Amino acid sequence: MFPQVRLRRLRNGKIRDMVRETSLSVDDLIYPMFVDENIDLPLAMSSMPGISRSPVEMIADDAKEVADLGIPAIILFGIPSTKDEKGSSAWGENDVVQRAVREIKNELGKDMYVITDVCLCEYTNHGHCGVVDMEHEQILNDPTLPLLGRTAVSHALAGADMVAPSGMMDGMITAIRDALDKSNCSDVPIMSYAVKYSSAFYGPFREAADSGYSFGDRSSYQMDPANSDEAIREAELDILEGTDVIMVKPALPYLDVLYRIKTEFKMPTAAYNVSGEFAMLKAAARLGWLDENKVMYESLLSIKRAGADMILTYFAKDLARMLK
Ligand code: PBG
After folding, report:
1. Residue 196 a catalytic site member
2. Phi, psi of 137, rounded to the nearest 5 degrees
3. Which of 135, 165, 189, 284 gives the lowest tally of CB atoms within 10 Å of its CB?
4. 218 Cβ closer than 6 Å to some ligand 1 atom
5. Got the DSSP string for 61-78?
6. Which of 75, 166, 199, 213 has most ligand 1 atoms within 8 Å of its beta carbon, as the pocket-test mutant?
7. Tens digit of pLDDT for each residue in 125-150?
8. pLDDT confidence tier of residue 274, bands split at 50, 70 and 90
């Protein structure tokens, strides 16, 4: 007890660094990138300062810039030239993501770990993450599963190192694992967006990925922000279905969930520091209300401290430059 015990003794000089429990490194980062087959020049996102969609022809150079900063991985989102009810341009050999993966892999090979987001929402004309019964405005789970399997296989065959299903359909990991295994892709790992909340923090992303929806919202398939026991069940099922990495998304408003998930399963765990979390800090920094580098570092450090092994973040390039 005080006065014998004084915690301040270790807070000064070199020893402060030596007792530090959590560290943040560029090796922890996954940078989200958007590739758009409708454009010839980069298209800036007004609500995500510094983030642009890239044309297919430029995506390899843009990925090289990321690799040169020492960032080990990217996650790719595609914006197709045509959308339909089923999202048919999600799985073609020459569709936007498949082309982009080939471009990046040709240029960078093993120097960039390429993860692809597997979801239909950017490819459907209604903007939902699955097949829809239009008459009843319902998002149908089971008819969506083979389409996700097919999409994942097409990404893997194009050269993706890992696939990341984000559509929150029940059984999606089983469907994708089976499809990959049947197509000789049993070595391609899955990162499941296992615990994905129905969150208003995705707002800016929907502009970035052109994935707003024509009716309703995503609450019939994404989780209720009020629930955390349910997050355990979601993660457990995806682990049983064979996912290799589990993700919690968003990150900062759900650090308690992230902590529970890591503590419970001790699985490789990712957290998605989403578009709204990024936009908030950027906006406050622009107004001069917060020190951008400091709040970025503290936020990402908190996500690691809570249990993330890796962080998907739009700050990846900013952090890499800051750490250099
Ligand atoms: C699509 C998807 C979304 C995000 C990643 N994949 C949006 C959504 O589910 O509405 C959000 C990413 C972000 O906000 O940064 N399934």
Report:
1. yes
2. 50, 50
3. 135
4. yes
5. HHHHHHHHTT--EEEEEE
6. 166
7. 998 999 898 888 899 999 999 999 99
8. very high
